[in-house]
Design a protein that fits this description.
The chain is an alpha/beta fold. The protein has one domain: Rossmann fold. It is built from 7 helices and 7 strands, in the order E-H-E-H-E-H-E-H-E-E-H-H-H-E. The protein has a 7-stranded mixed sheet with strand order 3-2-1-4-5-7-6, with helices on both faces. Helix 2 links the parallel strand 2 and strand 3. The longest helix has 19 residues. The two termini are 27 Å apart. 44% of the residues are buried. The mean pLDDT is 96.
Length: 234
């Protein structure tokens, strides 16, 4: 039997990973894989009608509710919305989480974005995977060298240079995803004018059409990972 996978999804804000690739995470959780969400900030600055402290508490509650619905675990970073640092301390924090969770697969933001926190989350995650593998780096946990792949999820704020390299069929997960991802108020509607649920549903349909399925979610990988080694043409 196939060994269960361990997926660690590192998002800049609570809701980033759930809205962009939550259907894929749910698919893995449903088949028995372990799924862990790490929200580096709550995204507490995104509600113009609530103070950051109040909205941050709301986002944490929403994150926990959504994680339960999708069969995932959830962890929170100590950082503030809009102020996510690319620092040695932050790199070691994420490396420590990687060593504790021991993921086989890591998912995070693409490298370019209109949101600085997304760019920071990408760089922190890449650096932390390396740091977590090095014996000399001290985090209080033994090193972890078992990450098989790092994947970048498709986000409307991270479009520049993103190429839909890998398409994952989520045709049987999409309706369930729609039901529980709206546990976040900003996705359900009423905070932002951006139609999150409509956008990501439509995007999944577009990616599904290309993939030959009803719905799919796209990921990109680093350019040097875009290779296949075969003995002859297939």
């Amino acid at each position: 039997m196939e060994e269960p996978k361990v997926l660690l999804a590192v998002g800049a804000h609570a809701g980033d990973m759930e809205v962009s690739c939550g259907a894929v995470l749910f698919k893995h959780a449903r088949k028995g894989d372990r799924v862990v969400l790490l929200h580096l900030t709550p995204g507490e600055g995104g509600n113009p009608r609530l103070a950051p402290a109040a909205y941050g508490s709301q986002k944490r509650r929403e994150a926990e509710t959504v994680a339960r619905a999708m069969g995932a675990e959830v962890l929170f970073g100590p950082y503030r919305d809009g102020e996510l640092p690319v620092s040695d301390e932050a790199r070691l924090f994420v490396a420590g989480v990687i060593r504790q969770v021991k993921p086989t697969h890591v998912i995070t933001h693409w490298r370019t974005s209109i949101h600085k926190d997304h760019v920071a989350a990408h760089q922190l995650t890449i650096d932390a995977v390396l740091l977590a593998s090095l014996e000399a780096v001290e985090t209080g946990h033994e090193r972890h060298r078992g990450v098989r792949g790092i994947y970048y999820t498709e986000n409307w704020e991270d479009p520049e240079g993103f190429s839909p390299y890998m398409l994952v069929d989520v045709s049987t997960e999409l309706e369930a995803w729609r039901s529980w991802v709206t546990g976040y108020e900003f996705i359900k509607g009423g905070i932002s004018t951006f139609a999150y649920l409509d956008y990501y549903t439509a995007l999944a349909r577009v990616r599904g059409a290309v993939a030959g399925t009803t719905y799919a979610v796209a990921f990109d990988v680093d350019p040097f990972e875009k290779k296949r080694v075969v003995k002859e043409l297939l």
